[in-house]
Each structure stands twice: as structure tokens, then as C-alpha cells.
Write a structure and sequence with these properties.
Helix content: over 70%
Strand content: under 5%
Oligomer: single chain
Structural class: mainly alpha
Radius of gyration: 20 Å
Number of strands: 0
Shape: globular
Order of helices and strands: HHHHHHHHHHHH
Largest sheet: none
Length: about 250
């Protein structure tokens, strides 16, 4: 698994995909941070993280579209299937490489909060010390945890879709469609009058489960949901390759 992890992580930077992903992610996050905090004159970062979630519609497919599709296109998939590594190890190696790119870039993007803390120190010097001024670190940390968990689920979805086709563009388009549906599912509730159906949609909706994280609250049920979602799609990918190896 480690060899595949290193190979996949290296491949992001031997092609343009890794550089494009990092550049687009950091540029988008900087613009969103500027718009949602500095231009609005607020220390509230919850809107920034919600907007960042919607940027995943483009960013996650860019990160995952090549994971297995490229292997099929280059006809190297059989080498992976006959390599001395388990299918689970092969899949997890690719998954963790994508997650390393995702989490690493997300953590680098936290430099967007430096101006807020700089303004906080300047304002604190001019007001009474007991007056709370500045961004809420607990909210930022809570949102980061929630974002990482949602990203883990979306990367697993992209991984699974990439395993189904050799066309990277098709993998990206399908992943975009799935993520759009998962993010906008709660909008359907406005047109449904049956409470039971509304409750089910609200339960599976990614955005509604993210709300508690924006208040700095670690919602364990949401954490289990996101991790379960990631596990399900990793298992589905495993089944796809189990069938191909023995089929």
C-alpha cells in the first residue's frame, strides 16, 4: 500500500493536475475568505466554510478523476491487479494519496485567517479586554474537522466513480453531478409537504449536518455519517476490483 501511496502522490506533481488543484484551491479559498469576512467586515467564518464546500463541486473531481481512470487508459490496471498487494491496499493507497493532497492544501489555506487575527490584535488594543473581539478559534477548528470529514466522503465517491470508467472527463462530470445533488439536496425540502420525507432528506443532507460544526460543536452523529459514507464507497470500489480480478 505504501508504494502505491507514494507513486500516486508523486504522480500529482509529475503532471499538471496537482499544481492546478493546489493553485485553484488556494486561489478560490483566498477569494472566498476575502469576500465572506474582510469585505463583509465580520469575524464570522461560518459562511466562508459553507462557500468552500460548494467549491468542492469542481475541486474534488479534479483531484479524483484520474485515480483509476488513468490506469485503464494507460493499460496499467492489470499490473496493479497482479501486483503483490491486496486490492484493499491498492485502493487505500490511492485514497490516502488523494486525501493527503486534500488535507494538506486545506491546512495551507488556513493562512487566510491570519489577517483576521491581525485585525483582532489591533482592535483589542483599543477596547476593554473583557469585550470579545476576533474570530472564534473553536468555530474554525470545528469547521475544519467537518470539512475534512466531508472531503473524505467526497473523495471516496470520486474514487468509486473513477473505478467505473477509463474516461477521466466522464469520471469528473459524474462526480460533479453527484456532489451537486448531495450539497443541494436540502433545497428539495422546500417543495415537499410530507414531514417524513423531509426528515429523511434532512438526515442525509451534507449541508444540514454541517451546521453544528459552524458553531464549533463536534456533532458525533454527523462525523459517523461522513465516515460511514466514505467507508461505503471505498467498499464499493473494492467490490468493483474484486470482480475484475476474479471475473
Amino acid at each position: 500500500m505504501l508504494a502505491i501511496y507514494k507513486k500516486e502522490l508523486r504522480s500529482y506533481f509529475t503532471t499538471a493536475i496537482g499544481y492546478v488543484y493546489v493553485g485553484v484551491f488556494l486561489a478560490a479559498s483566498a477569494l472566498l475568505a476575502c469576500y465572506s469576512t474582510l469585505m463583509q467586515g465580520t469575524y464570522d467564518t461560518s459562511n466562508y466554510f459553507v462557500y468552500l464546500l460548494f467549491s468542492f463541486i469542481i475541486l474534488i473531481p479534479l483531484l479524483t478523476m484520474k485515480l483509476f481512470s488513468e490506469e485503464k487508459k494507460l493499460r496499467t490496471e492489470q499490473l496493479l491487479l497482479t501486483a503483490p498487494v491486496s486490492i484493499t491496499g491498492m485502493i487505500l493507497g490511492k485514497y490516502f494519496a488523494a486525501m493527503t493532497m486534500f488535507v494538506g492544501t486545506l491546512l495551507v489555506s488556513t493562512i487566510n485567517f491570519f489577517p483576521l487575527y491581525a485585525y483582532m490584535r489591533a482592535e483589542t488594543a483599543n477596547v476593554e479586554s473583557y469585550i470579545p473581539v476576533g474570530p472564534s478559534t473553536s468555530r474554525i477548528v470545528g469547521c475544519l474537522i467537518g470539512i475534512i470529514l466531508i472531503g473524505a466522503a467526497f473523495v471516496a465517491i470520486g474514487l468509486f466513480i473513477s473505478s467505473l470508467t477509463e474516461n477521466q472527463l466522464a469520471a469528473a462530470v459524474i462526480t460533479v453531478s453527484v456532489i451537486v445533488v448531495m450539497l443541494l439536496l436540502n433545497l428539495v425540502n422546500e417543495f415537499i409537504s410530507v414531514y417524513a420525507i423531509r426528515a429523511v432528506i434532512d438526515w442525509v443532507c451534507v449541508i444540514s449536518r454541517f451546521t453544528n460544526f459552524t458553531y464549533g460543536i463536534l456533532d458525533f452523529s454527523a462525523m459517523v455519517y461522513y465516515l460511514s459514507l466514505a467507508a461505503v464507497f471505498i467498499l464499493l470500489t473494492n467490490r468493483v476490483y474484486e470482480k475484475r480480478r476474479w471475473g
